[in-house]
Specification:
Elements (H helix, E strand, L loop, with lengths): L2 H12 L4 E10 L9 E4 L5 E3 L4 H17 L3 E7 L11 E6 L6 E9 L4 E5 L3 H12 L3 E3 L9 E4 L6 H10 L5 E3 L3 H11 L3 H6 E2 L11 H18 L15 E3 L6 E3 L6 E4 L2 E4 L3 H8 L2
Parallel strand pairs: 4-5, 7-8, 7-9, 9-10, 10-11
Antiparallel strand pairs: 1-2, 1-6, 2-3, 4-6, 12-13, 14-15
Helix pairs in contact: 3-7
InterPro entries: MoCofactor_Util/Proc, XdhC_CoxI, XdhC_Rossmann_dom
Protein name: Carbon monoxide dehydrogenase accessory protein
């Protein structure tokens, strides 16, 4: 990673901003990119750095936005029209570069998503074990009462501060609140809170999967297994904040490439219909200019 891009990546990570790190891993002349060139792509489609010319950049932008949505890494292979220079690679996506300059390039796209946040309420051996295991699982652990942005909250006060912690988590919009309590005590506590049906559905009590856990570490394992299951199987997400504005995309009518529409995207309005292009060459071919 180049120094400038590395510094930018650290800034984005510290601010918990999602981005994609793109690195050129292989290039064939006459492409302008070279192995080691890299860039970051932000959720609005903007690219900081260099991974190729205008045509390659359009393909990188579209593919990077896809990786931000699904969280999977991707090897993007951009080839000149009518060629298959690079051998097939499992897990790679191939796009055609219609630019006359030619050249082939492979770019590795790695989405960098903020770590999931887990709130832990309580000062008990169970809460300590949950926090330790959560950090091992790459969660960011918050042990204070501000749970905005948390994916899940574990309430393990064992009788101390539980109503306040549950209320704070629900008010913050947390979708998975795990209460460490017996079934009987949990039912009595939740009845006292007079929760709505939606709020009650978000509270999981007793907390964790039923694995016969006894020790604090085993209980933590059961709780975190249920949180991971909710994230991976039920698509549990942190509370929605400001809506994410996805950049508009269009298909180049000449080469069929998906392009991200921005102020600098080549554009033509013909017979009352707007068209966007990957490069000035496709625009000229379409308009006969």
């Amino acid at each position: 990673m180049s120094t400038t891009i590395a510094e930018r990546a650290r800034e984005l990570s510290a601010a918990r901003e999602p981005f994609v790190h793109a690195t050129v891993v292989r290039a064939q002349e006459p492409t302008s990119a070279r192995p080691g060139d890299d860039a970051v792509i932000l959720p609005d489609g903007s690219i900081e750095g260099f991974v190729g010319g205008a045509c390659a950049e359009s393909s990188v932008r579209a593919a990077a936005l896809d990786t931000l949505r699904d969280g999977d890494t991707l090897l993007l292979r951009v080839l000149p029209d009518g060629t298959d220079t690079f051998p097939d690679t499992p897990g790679a996506r191939v796009v055609v570069n219609p630019c006359h300059s030619g050249g082939a390039v492979e770019i590795f796209l790695r989405p960098m998503l903020p770590a999931a946040v887990l709130g832990v309420a309580g000062n008990t051996p169970i809460s300590a074990a949950v926090a330790t295991l959560a950090r091992f699982l790459d969660f960011e652990v918050v042990e204070a009462g501000d749970y905005y942005g948390a994916t899940a909250v574990v309430v393990a006060g064992l009788g101390k501060g539980e109503p306040e912690a549950i209320r704070a988590a629900l008010d913050a919009g947390v979708g998975h609140v795990a209460l460490v309590a017996s079934r009987t005590r949990a039912a009595a506590l939740l009845d006292e809170l007079t929760l709505t049906d939606d709020e009650r559905a978000r509270v999981h009590a007793p907390a964790g999967l039923a694995i016969g856990a006894r020790t604090s570490s085993e209980i933590a394992l059961a709780i975190m297994a249920d949180v991971v299951r909710a994230v991976r199987c039920d698509d549990l997400r942190p509370p929605a904040g400001a809506p994410v504005v996805r950049p508009r995309q269009a298909v180049d009518p000449v080469c069929g490439m998906t392009v991200t529409v921005g102020p600098d995207t080549p554009h033509a309005r013909v017979d009352g219909e707007d068209h966007w292009f990957c490069c000035p060459g496709c625009l000229a071919r379409f308009t006969g200019g």
